[in-house]
UniProtKB/TrEMBL annotation, chain A:
This is P-type ATPase C-terminal domain-containing protein. Its main location: membrane. It holds the Pfam family PhoLip_ATPase_C. GO terms for cellular component: plasma membrane; trans-Golgi network. Keywords: Magnesium, Membrane, Metal-binding, Transmembrane, Transmembrane helix. It comes from Oryzias melastigma (Marine medaka).
Automatic annotation (TrEMBL), chain B:
The lineage of its organism: Eukaryota, Metazoa, Chordata, Craniata, Vertebrata. This is Cell cycle control protein. The keyword NADP does not apply. One of its GO terms (biological process) is phospholipid translocation. Keywords: Membrane, Transmembrane, Transmembrane helix.
Amino acid sequence: MCQTVICCRVTPLQKAQVVKVVKKYKQAVTLAIGDGANDVSMIKTAHIGVGISGQEGMQAVLSSDFSFAQFRYLQRLLLVHGRWSYLRMSKFLRYFFLKNFTFTFVHFWYAFFCGYSAQPVYDDWFSTCYNLVYTALPVLALSLFDQDVNGRWSFYYPKLYIPGQQNMYFNKKSFLLCMMQSCYNSLVLFFVPYGALHDTVRQDGRDITDYQTFALLLQTCLIIVVNTQMFLDTWYWTGINHFFLWGSMAAYFALTFTLSSNGLFFIFPTMFQFLGTGRNSLNQPNTWLIIFLACLLCILPVVALRFIFLQTSPTINDKVRYKMRRDEVPAISPRRPATRRVSTRSSYAFSHSQGYGDLVTSQKFLGKKTPRRPLLFGQKEHPLGENQPQLFRTITEESEEQQSP
Amino acid sequence: MGKEKSKSGPLARRPDNSAFKQQRLPAWSPMLTASTVLPFFYLLALICMLLGVWLLLTVQRTQEIKVRDSRLQGNLPRERQRKDLSDPSDPKDLFYLSSLENFHQNLRRYMDSRDDGQMVGRKRSLKSPSSYCKPFDFDANGVPIAPCGAVANSMFNDSFLLTYYTINGPSVVPLLRKGLTWYTDKNIKYRNPKADNQTLAEVFEGTTQPSFWQKPVYRLDPFDPSNNGFINEDLIVWMREAAFPNFKKLYGILYRANKPYTNGLPAGNYSATISYNFPVQYFRGRKELVLTTVSWFGGQNHFLPIAYLVTSSLILLTAVVLTGVWWKFGKDGKNMAE
């Protein structure tokens, strides 16, 4: 099967049409890379347009999604940054759905106990701050910094790119799994505190089965479970991740105690009704035992399942990460040319007739003195004329260096 | 923010080669390995088992007695009901709780129907209760109700009495009706309006009692004048809405200063007298008087100890399964061959 097609002497419109044909009939994600003004239409038509800034001006760059200075940076764009980007987006989406579904399903279970009157089971301030303050920053850090494999190893194992092509990290199946996990989490998060609290009192006999204590307990359990899930999901712990995650937990406790403090209550009694709830319930060992149990029941199945999948059917990611940990040696860096000359050429040219190719590659028109190389095509023979397949000479290292822009 | 030396030439726009911008920040990359996961699971199973056993032993030491009113009909004050209690002497506090079933204090409109500003003693809110209290804010003559709202209106007003049959005859078991509430509730959340040399009745002048009440708020406790007004302990206990339809609220604590109650209730015959004011037949509810002792863990609730024991066995089972899976598939990294 034909894997590669080369089109030459095409107009800009035809370039765009080639991309359109591939998009339409192959249902594939297309990427177009170019550096000149004649590439603009192709760049705009493709799903991802990459412009190269340099000799030909900035036209391609201005109309592209990504731009860089050298063609070879495309490898890094795809294999390192593209891959990381896909991983981060998928993790972000799954985590976001998980935490919000868990947050919401608990209200569904409470409906059976509150006479279906739509009484929220959390404090209103918690509902406000949940997505804004308590869980926003850790997931932001995850989606900015997370890496599974570092840059060098990504180059060494291009096969790591396959999960992105096959849409393995976020698809309908993983979304359904996420929903089911949320459902299970919400069941645990509601019924464990319900069972433990509905029929008991505090150490000193006073009330602990009131609505506000229950709400606070549920909130605390939820925050801890959700942040522990983030702990499991993050694979690359920079200092910023640590700061955001532990800081969010601290912010939760700080805000909860602030919003239930005496001062705020005196100013706005109806808005800050949870006065004293934290102080009176979180000093009971009962509540902390409930929180511990709820977290265990929510998190341990995840850990166990991930471990089982890691042992029985590890993905290419897992294998490379394992190797990375075990070897502790950076992968061989990709071959770089010894000298980096600023090139005055920035495009490829293909010629259909004899003579021009040699002319271009011999750099004669630049007026530079270059060492003589063997010619691409012999002057005498013309394989096309004889209906023979064209034989190309092997590109050696020396000439590759000279030909790279 | 300008750079000190402006780079020129073809590398002018190159991004910094800093660790942050090149995504090379020093980081910890954990991975689920057998040497971390398996000991972790075994350790957790052990911890849960110990916790479960400890909690079970603690809960077994608490005692709970429920006195169910078998005749639910009618509103008559109930006669005495003999019940044999055989409480062994146990130097612990005994708590009287009133238990209610099928009463939804957690209904949304019910919970909204209160005015915390009024209950914290604001003079302005005393005479003009918030609109959330409708229709329990003003009575038929337009007089403001204090305390307003459905929560206060439906206050539980049964009273219980325990009588101990000694050799010398029946004696009423003394009951402490104070110290039933949270500190923050009693001292901060609920305060009477400021009384500048006025009696409590004068402070509440111009307001009326809720329609279901038999006494006005400033005369709720005839025996203790400091337990009247918004800071009445029964009122505060009731105003803390329960989370579920079946709940218990603290009614009183056994007064253990004098003999023979210094070590709790001595064994013998008791009877409970319940004055039946709170009608439960309208919402098909049930009432009970519950006597219980507590431990550091709280009242008698077997859920958490049993849950911990079940969890520990589940974790142990999972740990064994994981060990088996690891042994078969992933030992020495044989599943990680490329």
